[in-house]
């Protein structure tokens, strides 16, 4: 049983921490999935729980694009589709390697990554840039490299979401998606990266809350023995641990409840039951199923043995805590940050510049309006690009919009746009659990289209590559793949003419742009300035 725990600071007598201590002391859970917090808060909290636990806890986290996804101050690479845009297996390996080193430094042992899904549906609301791309063979090569990067450096890799979440248009956090493809189709597309990851030695596979009628019935894969035992264990010969996707997600808990969902997932073939809606109910139901003969002792022993062997192989019986004084030498190290910057720059992809606006911006300093958009959690969206453009000599007016922005905010944005001869839209549209869609607000798509028809405009995507579906007439379109600092800086440097652009699309953008497309700007147009010694170019 693997319940969720926030990584934020908690006093030892905090009510939330008291609950976590009861999981360890009374329920004797096998592990924890840790969420966002500072390196020291996460490490200290995990050390305390490890010291209380009778057996070492197996600690997991979602570190898809690096430890920075959960550990504040750790290295944040762009979303992994950026590695698809470079096409370089070394980039996928590096993301895995750095995530492993930084994650193990704070006490995390299992990364619920890489995402081995083939993103072959542009309307997919939850995978998108979390996937390496659309070509199953290209994705397979990068999955293999990511797995090696993690496991060469002491952290278990997880292939998700088995047997494939790429061809869906429903968020499984909310409802139950169904993929009606034949087995031969799944075998030639969705399963290709999973086979590669298993061949590379991935220690864990995570099930998808998705129904696959090709395997019989309408059960989600998480509850299907045909998928988790018949396909994964028997056909693909996977011998590692199977973990469910979060059992509190709407497509599971709403129909089956916390207790029955846990039992059914275990019966289907799972070893780790992740994030049950109610750990007490889940464990109680498991005990009833065991005592009533629904679960056999032999079946339980098989999963327990797998988990214990993983803990032993990770060295947790010899050393289960981490030294706090070594964290600052690893987490967020300059070499790791430089690697993220380098990858972000090489991944930058110029899809369209029919008006030559990008070329003109690169050739001379300009006066422009920068309009940024992101969800409320990304409060800095556009800020790093703004700072860099101004440092480079551009005169920039700035305005930020949010999903909840109303008419008054859009009027203010139009005022900023009206004062500038050129406009850059920096749009961070990304997959967000429970949202149900991934798109620009219609009012913002209209603003971009109207602005582009009136004056030179560049649309920069800091997330989903499919924004052209809503703004098909925009004349200049660049993709930075992520809203993290390294990706924003890469886009800013490109607009200043400080660096080349040569990323290639790892997905199609219907109806015009195929996989592998991307305009090349070979040389830097203008060199970066040499600032005074006390100024650092961000």
Task: Please tell me about this protein's structure.
By secondary structure, this protein is α/β, with parallel strands linked by helices. The chain has helices at residues 15-27, 39-52, 81-86, 89-105, 136-151, 183-188, 191-199, 225-235, 250-268, 279-291, 297-313, 334-347, 357-363, 383-391, 407-418, 442-454, 485-496; strands at residues 4-5, 31-34, 58-61, 110-111, 156-162, 204-207, 241-243, 349-353, 367-373, 395-401, 422-427, 457-461, 476-479. Strands 1-2-3-4-5-6-7 form a seven-stranded parallel β-sheet. Strand 11 (422-427), helix 16 and strand 12 form a beta-alpha-beta unit. Helix 5 (136-151) runs parallel beside helix 7 and helix 9 packs parallel to helix 10 (279-291). The longest helix has 19 residues, at 250-268. The model is unreliable at 531-538 (pLDDT under 50).
User: For the report, how would you describe the main beta sheet?
Assistant: 7 strands, parallel
* Gross morphology: globular
Radius of gyration: 24 Å
What proportion of the residues is helical, as a percent range?
A: 25-40%
The number of distinct helices, counting runs of at least 4 residues, comes to: 17
Tell how many strands the DSSP assignment holds. Answer: 13
Counting helices, strands and paired strands, the structural category is alpha/beta
The side-by-side strand order for the widest beta sheet comes to 1-2-3-4-5-6-7
Q: Roughly how many Å apart are the termini?
A: 43 Å
Task: Give the integer mean of the pLDDT values.
Answer: 94
**Spans with pLDDT under 50 lasting ≥5 residues?**
531-538
> What is the string of helix and strand elements?
EHEHEHHEHEHHEHEHHHHEHEHEHEHEEH
Strand content: 5-15%
């Amino acid at each position: 049983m693997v319940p969720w725990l926030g990584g934020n600071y908690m006093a030892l007598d905090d009510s939330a921490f008291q609950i976590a201590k009861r999981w360890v002391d009374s329920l004797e859970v096998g592990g924890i999935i840790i969420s966002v917090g500072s390196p020291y808060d996460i490490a200290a909290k995990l050390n305390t729980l490890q010291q209380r636990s009778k057996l070492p806890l197996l600690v997991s986290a979602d570190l898809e694009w690096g430890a920075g996804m959960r550990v504040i101050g750790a290295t944040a690479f762009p979303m992994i589709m950026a590695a698809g845009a470079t096409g370089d297996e070394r980039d996928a390996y590096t993301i895995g390697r750095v995530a492993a080193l930084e994650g193990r430094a704070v006490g995390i042992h299992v990364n619920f990554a890489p995402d081995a899904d083939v993103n072959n549906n542009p309307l997919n609301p939850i995978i998108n840039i979390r996937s390496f791309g659309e070509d199953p063979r290209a994705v397979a090569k990068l999955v293999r490299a990511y797995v090696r990067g993690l496991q060469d450096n002491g952290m278990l890799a997880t292939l998700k979401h088995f047997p494939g979440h790429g061809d869906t248009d429903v968020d499984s956090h909310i409802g139950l998606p169904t993929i009606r493809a034949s087995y031969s189709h799944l075998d030639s597309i969705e399963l290709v990266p999973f086979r590669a990851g298993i061949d590379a030695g991935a220690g864990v596979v995570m099930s998808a809350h998705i129904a696959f009628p090709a395997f019989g019935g309408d059960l989600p894969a998480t509850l299907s023995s045909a998928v988790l035992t018949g396909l994964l264990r028997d056909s693909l010969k996977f011998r590692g641990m199977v973990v469910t996707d979060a059992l509190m997600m709407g497509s599971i808990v709403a129909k089956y409840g916390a207790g029955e969902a846990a039992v059914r997932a275990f019966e289907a073939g799972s070893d780790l039951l992740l994030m049950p809606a109610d750990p007490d109910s889940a464990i109680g139901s498991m005990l009833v199923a065991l005592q009533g003969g629904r679960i056999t002792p032999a079946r339980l022993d098989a999963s327990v043995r797998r988990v214990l062997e993983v803990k032993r192989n990770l060295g947790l019986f010899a050393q289960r805590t981490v030294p706090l004084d070594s964290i600052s030498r690893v987490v967020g190290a300059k070499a790791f940050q430089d690697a993220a910057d380098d990858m972000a720059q090489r991944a930058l992809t110029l899809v369209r510049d029919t008006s030559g606006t990008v070329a003109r911006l690169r050739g001379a300093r300009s006066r422009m309006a920068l309009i940024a958009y992101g969800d409320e959690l990304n409060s800095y969206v556009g800020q790093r690009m703004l700072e860099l453009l101004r440092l480079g000599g551009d005169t920039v007016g700035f305005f930020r919009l949010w999903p909840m922005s109303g008419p008054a905010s859009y009027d203010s944005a139009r005022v900023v746009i009206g004062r500038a001869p050129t406009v850059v839209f920096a749009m961070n549209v990304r997959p967000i659990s429970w949202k149900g869609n991934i798109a620009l607000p219609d009012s913002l798509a209209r603003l971009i289209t109207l602005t582009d028809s009136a004056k030179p405009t560049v649309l920069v995507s800091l997330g989903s590559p499919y924004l052209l579906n809503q703004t098909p007439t925009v004349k200049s379109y660049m993709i930075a793949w992520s809203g993290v600092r390294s990706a924003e800086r890469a886009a800013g440097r490109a607009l200043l003419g400080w660096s080349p652009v040569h990323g290639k699309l790892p997905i199609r953008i219907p109806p015009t742009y195929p996989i592998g497309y991307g305009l090349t700007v070979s040389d830097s147009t203008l060199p970066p300035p040499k600032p005074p010694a006390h100024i650092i170019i961000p």
